[in-house]
């Protein structure tokens, strides 16, 4: 994680309606997100998480307050400049994937590249790289309707990454996925933050992500608050350190007569590639590292 | 975004065809009314055009043939013939009225011909004699097809029975057909055996018809002379003011209906893609690019609808008169151009209005968050 702040919000508020019917969705929120940092925004439904994310992504203008992205104050930017900023510096990942149904995997991923200075031609190498990294190469010509939920979300992540943005905003990216697929997607986003030095700001209800996040912001009634932690009964993935529910986990292996549980097949593959490295790690035990 | 627009349209070929067909059907409706208008208008002046006269001479104060009556002494035709700039004259007696055939009245231009004036008789014959003698008539073939009264059959002109001896082509119109009878019969009916209604003048080569018309009016008292172009324009205008005005009104209503259908089709097409437009906005596409994408889709649908309408019109509408012979349809390219010019901007505005409104909406409303 870098110390350089890439996204900064000061005294951010957003109200809808007016008079007696006015709703204050976000109320005086200030936050800083650094490069390579993975930050979760959690909170009950209707707490203003998506509204906050929309404002930080320059999709919704705040009623008051200031947002600075990569040193630029976007609060007073024109619509065209905001669109350019979104295209070049911010990648979005949505709960419902939001792929364009008529375009195949490749075209969906390349769509934002049209807005990059080098255009789609310059993005072809990046496309191949993302398709390989996200295991989408065999599906590059497939239409969204033929993809599984996990594949759709991986395409959405590839699309968010095609222009090498500095910030990824993810709104419930695992909300429409089963737990296995959800953990897979979480790991990808975790890797994005760690390996590409990209700030990942994620709205989620999924408590399993807490372990891999650098920070957790708790939003309630439009305000950031200190959150009371609730006790959970988790085991730890020996590769990524993510907590995994022992009873629902389906990806397991045995090594040296010990059972190991993983959040995703990616972690399993990494473990199998270097089992001694992960099995020997004394702090990352498995079944014996409960709450 | 253009690529997305095109792929989105092609991804649902059935929907694309249904939308284009809806647009095409509305266009065909307008084209049909317009084709009736044009066809009937053409047919109303067809006799005047087919005589190919250079100058028309008629009674003073008369400037058309439709719903008009004109009487000239026969010596005036002889006088015109002696003009050194005139190569030939042909004179007719004329009555604008109904003939009865098959128990039905057919409103007609009744032309009384003399045998020597063949040039101003029927220009296209289907069957029989072209110049009727006393007691005879040449009627449009379409009347025969509609009534069964053919060669040897009987029609009634005012109070006298005439035998059909010839069937002419291209001479039928719903508003006014052309029926040829003997000048003797018509002169007798009108008690004008030494008079003509109109004198058609054929000028010698190099003579300007307008100059000739002016000279005839100077030489002969109480006549009006018009060049053929002026006379046809005058007659067409009067005819258009009468029956064709109704068709023009129907065309206007059809056009308004078409505009509504095309605008609605464009609107619903874009409305269905509201979510995807919001996604594009979230990905960084500017409002201008999104508007252009929406406009491009509307343009494709409208142009496709127009092409389909042309295909339908040139096949079905051109074929229709062979099945329904009383209809005169004229399908022309300028009709398509007119409808495109009227409807396309409305369709583009409809799609744009929706897009502009929705580009300012919160993304989470549109993207299902």
Descriptive overview:
The complex is a heterodimer of chains A (291) and B (369). With 291 residues, chain A is an alpha/beta fold. Chain A folds into two domains: 5-225, P-loop containing nucleotide triphosphate hydrolases (Rossmann fold, 3-Layer(aba) Sandwich), CATH 3.40.50.300; 235-279, no CATH class. Helices cover 29% and strands 25% of the residues of chain A. Chain A is built from nine helices and 14 strands. Chain A has helices spanning 49-56, 79-89, 105-110, 119-122, 124-133, 149-161, 179-196, 265-273, 275-279, and strands at residues 5-16, 23-34, 38-42, 64-69, 72-73, 90-93, 167-171, 199-203, 215-220, 223-225, 235-236, 243-244, 251-255, 258-262. In chain A, the strands form four sheets. Chain A has a six-stranded mixed β-sheet with strand order 6-7-8-3-9-10, sandwiched between helices. In chain A, helix 6 (149-161) runs parallel beside helix 7. The longest helix of chain A is centred in the middle third of the chain and has 18 residues, at 179-196. Mean pLDDT of chain A is 83; it is low at 282-291. By secondary structure, chain B is an alpha+beta fold. Chain B folds into two domains: 2-44 and 239-366, no CATH class; 47-228, no CATH class. Helix content of chain B is 55%, strand content 20%. Chain B is built from twelve helices and twelve strands. Chain B has helices spanning 2-11, 13-44, 46-50, 74-81, 141-147, 183-190, 209-219, 228-272, 274-283, 287-323, 333-359, 363-366, and strands at residues 55-59, 72-73, 86-101, 104-113, 125-128, 136-140, 154-157, 160-168, 177-182, 195-196, 198-203, 223-227. In chain B, helix 8 packs across helix 10. The model of chain B is unreliable at 361-369 (pLDDT under 50).
Put the structure in a nutshell:
The complex is a heterodimer of chains A (291) and B (369). Chain A has 291 residues and is an alpha/beta fold. Chain A has helices at residues 49-56, 79-89, 105-110, 119-122, 124-133, 149-161, 179-196, 265-273, 275-279, and strands at 5-16, 23-34, 38-42, 64-69, 72-73, 90-93, 167-171, 199-203, 215-220, 223-225, 235-236, 243-244, 251-255, 258-262.
């Amino acid at each position: 994680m870098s110390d350089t702040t890439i996204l900064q919000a000061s005294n951010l508020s957003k109200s809808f309606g007016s008079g007696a019917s006015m709703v204050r969705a976000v109320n005086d929120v200030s936050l800083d997100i650094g490069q390579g940092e993975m930050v979760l925004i959690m909170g009950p439904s209707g707490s203003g998480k998506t509204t906050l994310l929309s404002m930080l992504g320059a999709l919704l203008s705040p009623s008051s307050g200031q947002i600075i992205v990569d040193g630029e104050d976007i609060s007073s930017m024109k619509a065209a400049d905001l669109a350019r900023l979104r295209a070049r510096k911010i990648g979005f990942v949505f709960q419902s994937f939001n792929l364009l149904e008529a375009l195949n995997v490749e075209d969906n991923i390349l769509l934002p590249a049209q807005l990059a200075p080098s255009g789609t031609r310059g993005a072809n190498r990046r496309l191949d790289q993302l398709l390989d990294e996200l295991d989408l190469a065999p599906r590059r010509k497939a239409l969204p309707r033929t993809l599984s939920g996990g594949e759709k979300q991986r395409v959405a992540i590839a699309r968010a990454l095609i222009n090498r943005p500095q910030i990824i905003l993810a709104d419930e990216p695992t909300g429409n996925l089963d737990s296995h697929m959800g953990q897979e997607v979480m790991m990808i986003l975790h890797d994005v933050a760690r390996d590409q030095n990209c700030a990942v700001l994620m709205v989620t209800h999924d408590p399993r992500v807490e372990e891999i996040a650098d920070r957790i912001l708790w939003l309630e009634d439009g305000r950031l608050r200190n959150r009371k932690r609730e006790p959970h009964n988790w085991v730890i993935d020996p590769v990524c350190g993510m907590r995994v529910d022992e009873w629902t986990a389906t990806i397991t292996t045995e090594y040296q007569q010990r059972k190991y549980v993983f959040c995703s097949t990616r972690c399993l593959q990494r473990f199998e590639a270097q089992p001694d490295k992960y099995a020997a790690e004394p702090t990352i035990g498995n079944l014996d590292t409960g709450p | 975004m253009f690529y997305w627009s095109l792929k989105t349209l092609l991804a649902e070929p059935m929907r694309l065809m249904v939308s284009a067909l809806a647009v095409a059907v509305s266009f065909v409706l307008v084209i049909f009314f317009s084709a009736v208008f044009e066809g009937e208008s053409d047919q109303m002046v067809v006799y005047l055009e087919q005589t190919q006269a250079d100058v028309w001479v008629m009674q003073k104060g008369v400037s058309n043939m439709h719903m008009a009556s004109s009487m000239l002494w026969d010596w005036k035709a002889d006088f015109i013939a002696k003009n050194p700039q005139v190569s030939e004259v042909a004179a007719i007696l004329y009555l604008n009225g109904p003939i009865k055939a098959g128990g039905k009245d057919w409103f007609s231009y009744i032309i009384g011909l003399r045998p020597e004036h063949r040039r101003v008789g029927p220009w296209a014959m289907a069957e029989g004699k072209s110049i009727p003698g006393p007691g005879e008539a040449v009627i449009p073939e379409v009347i025969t097809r509609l009534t069964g009264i053919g060669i040897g059959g009987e029609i009634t002109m005012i109070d006298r029975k005439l035998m059909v001896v010839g069937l002419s082509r291209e001479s039928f119109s719903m508003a006014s057909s052309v029926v040829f009878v003997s000048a003797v019969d018509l002169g007798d009916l009108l008690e004008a055996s030494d008079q003509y209604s109109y004198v058609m003048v054929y000028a010698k080569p190099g003579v300007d018809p307008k100059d000739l018309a002016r000279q005839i009016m100077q030489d002969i008292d109480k006549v009006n002379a018009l060049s053929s172009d002026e006379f046809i324009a005058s007659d067409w205008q009067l005819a258009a003011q009468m029956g064709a005005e109704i068709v023009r009104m129907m065309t206007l209503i059809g056009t308004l209906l078409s505009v509504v259908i095309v605008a609605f089709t464009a609107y619903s097409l874009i409305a269905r893609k509201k979510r995807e437009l919001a996604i594009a906005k979230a990905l960084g596409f500017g409002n201008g690019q999104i508007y252009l994408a929406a406009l491009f889709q509307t343009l494709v649908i409208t142009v496709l609808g127009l092409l389909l309408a042309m295909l339908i019109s040139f096949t079905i509408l051109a074929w229709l008169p062979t099945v329904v012979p009383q209809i005169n349809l004229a399908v022309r390219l300028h009709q398509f151009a007119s409808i495109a010019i009227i409807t396309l901007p409305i369709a583009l505005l409809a799609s744009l209005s929706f897009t502009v409104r929705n580009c300012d909406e919160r993304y989470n409303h549109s993207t299902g968050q």
